[in-house]
Design brief:
By secondary structure, this protein is an alpha+beta fold. It has two domains: 1-62, no CATH class; 69-149, no CATH class. Strand 3 (95-96) and strand 4 form a beta hairpin. The chain is elongated. 54% of the residues lie in helices and 13% in strands. It has helices spanning 4-54, 120-149; strands spanning 69-73, 84-88, 95-96, 102-103, 108-112. It has two helices and five strands.
């Protein structure tokens, strides 16, 4: 036998449960709409960046394509007074997952520039460029190596 007090508590819980279900449904609908808006904005942003590149404009550094090796300033104490380093990123820009989320890898310095170099910034940029070019060449050879090994 259910007491009046228990019946009231159950009724309150069912009422609250219904309200929470409605709130969750609204949040889900809003989330879907927001994801659509984000996708539209990302597409428009990509179009703008392409236009900037085609017209010879400078793409903002935050928007340029990430590379595996980048020349960056660092706070590492062994990087001498100029503080330049080559930073390695195993998954530049992150990896897009099937559920729409994105994973990022640990970025770390692979080369610290010292005072032995006259112009650490220029050397860092040149070394990063050479490493990225070598990486792309090696990546292009992978299918051929796999094919010849088979």
């Amino acid at each position: 036998m259910i007491t009046k007090e228990t019946a009231k508590k159950l009724g309150d819980c069912y009422t609250k449960l219904d309200a929470l279900d409605r709130i969750i449904t609204n949040f889900q609908d809003d989330l879907i709409e927001n994801l659509r808006n984000i996708a539209e904005c990302e597409a428009a942003k990509t179009d703008c960046l392409s236009t900037i590149g085609e017209l010879g404009g400078e793409v903002p550094s935050a928007e340029r394509k990430r590379q595996h090796y980048e020349a960056e300033r660092t706070a590492h104490p062994k990087a001498a007074q100029h503080r330049w380093a080559i930073i390695h990123d195993p998954t530049p820009g992150g990896r897009q997952n099937e559920d729409g989320s994105r994973n990022f890898s640990l970025r770390f310095p692979v080369l610290l520039l010292t005072d032995y170099v006259d112009d650490p910034e220029t050397v860092a940029i040149s070394v990063a460029k050479a490493l990225n070019e070598a990486f792309e060449r090696e990546k292009a050879l992978r299918p051929k190596v796999a094919e010849s090994a088979a």
